[in-house]
Write a structure and sequence with these properties.
alpha/beta, Molybdenum Cofactor Biosythetic Enzyme, Chain A, Alpha-Beta Plaits, Maf protein, 3 domains, 6-stranded mixed β-sheet, 5-stranded mixed β-sheet, 25% strand
């Protein structure tokens, strides 16, 4: 199997100022192409760190993919360090120079400065990968039977190079493997209990098929992966095993696709040609954000009322003042009324509601921080659930969103068309 290592460069990655999405996307796309990423390494903008990483990763990987440090400022030192590592010097690449001029003069209509022109400089020994989405070209090197590819850290630019040039080159130059996945999503059972439930299934798996547990926000994804030099009959075997796995976890199964909970809910509503809305207090529109992040969600999602203040609950969702005074905003009675108000005012088949105390302050003896009420229903019936979370504000919000989306999904499935 061809071994690939990904090196991401930038101090901003190490201090958490920027989240490394590049290596995750690269690994996914390489996997689709039949390559398995063996290691992912993040390092800072330091000469010695970069040189050490190049040595270490090339000691075991045939392909080393690098992103970051190719900008026009002084902290972007990848090109000079690559010159040192490959014992070469910087030269102007005419095609890259024309690309820089075209971007600044014709597209941006801004004058160029010397710093911009230096973007066209590349190590003399590299094969240049032209950047169709930006100014910094990519660079491909060969050394001691290893392939090194350096690309910009800007995700949009890196993705263009990977898709148009790097992956096609790798597929032509290296042997690919048969890699295939089957993923399902469960809710309502913890990872440990799930593992106990399917222990005999996992122990009986053939060597070339592995099971992975991916817990997140009260749910667990199960992924079966077949990985071998050739497909043989693995695709059929994987399908049969996946069917067996689905039957074993059927009571907790959300979807047998590798999709999010909000996507699964959207597919359910689309199939039924029905609509939904949200009435959110403690989640502040986060549930609506998750739903509308899915392309095509306008077919089933009409809108949201973010009723953070009690006056908005009264005016926009028709929550009776007596309910709020008697039971408070964080109560079963309030979220029931919020669902009914959303359905009435937003004219949808279904609605969900959230109200809670996310923290770190605001709790009381009766309703401590982390207390949340959620509800879901239609014009005829509303179901509710009380939750309590012990985490920080962000995680409490994310867990509430996951639980209320699943509550609505279960409600819809329990009602016939």
């Amino acid at each position: 199997m061809t071994k690939i290592s990904i090196i991401t460069i930038g101090d901003e990655l190490l201090i958490g100022q920027v989240i490394d999405t590049n290596s995750a996307w690269m690994a996914q796309e390489l996997n689709k192409a039949g390559f398995w990423v063996t290691r992912r390494v993040a390092i800072g903008d330091g000469r010695s760190d970069i040189l050490k990483a190049l040595d270490e990763e090339s000691s075991f990987a045939e392909i080393i993919l690098i992103t970051g440090g190719l900008g026009p400022t002084a902290d972007d030192i990848t090109k000079p360090v690559l010159c040192e590592y490959f014992n070469t010097t910087l030269v102007i690449n005419e095609e890259a120079l024309e690309n820089v001029k075209n971007i600044f003069i014709k597209i941006l209509q801004r004058p160029m400065i010397e710093r911009n022109l230096k973007q066209a400089e590349v190590p003399a020994s590299c094969t240049v990968i032209q950047n169709k989405r930006g100014t910094a070209p990519g660079m491909l090197f060969e050394k001691n039977g290893r392939i090194f590819v350096s690309m910009p850290g800007v995700p949009h630019e890196m993705k263009g190079m990977m898709t148009d040039s790097v992956i096609p080159f790798l597929k032509k130059s290296f042997a690919t493997s048969f890699i295939s996945h089957r993923t399902l999503l469960t809710a309502g059972i913890g990872e440990s209990s799930l593992a106990d439930h399917i222990q005999d299934f996992e122990e009986a798996l053939p060597q070339q098929i592995r099971l992975a547990y991916l817990p997140n926000y009260g749910m667990v994804r199960l992924r079966l992966t077949a990985n071998a030099n050739q497909a043989g009959g693995l695709e059929t075997e994987l399908d049969l095993l996946f069917d067996d796995l689905k039957s074993r976890v059927s009571q907790w199964l959300v979807t047998d696709e590798d999709i999010t909970l909000q996507e699964a809910l959207g597919k359910l509503l689309t199939a039924r040609k029905q609509t939904m809305s949200t009435a959110e207090s403690c989640t502040g529109g986060y549930v609506a954000h998750l739903i509308t992040s899915i392309p095509g969600s306008s077919a089933y999602f009409t809108g949201s009322v973010i009723a953070y203040d009690n006056e908005i609950k009264k005016k926009m969702l028709n929550v009776e003042p007596g309910i709020l005074s008697a039971h408070g905003a964080v109560s079963e009675e309030t979220v029931r009324a919020m669902v009914s108000g959303a359905i009435q005012n937003l004219k949808t088949d279904y609605a969900l509601a959230t109200s809670g105390i996310m923290g770190p302050g605001g709790g009381s003896e009766d309703k401590p921080v982390g207390t949340v009420w959620i509800a879901a229903g239609n014009a005829h019936e509303v179901i509710t659930q009380k939750l309590w979370f012990r985490f920080d504000r962000q995680r409490n919000t994310e867990l509430t969103a996951a639980n209320v989306l699943n509550l609505l999904r279960r409600f819809i499935l329990s009602r016939s068309l």
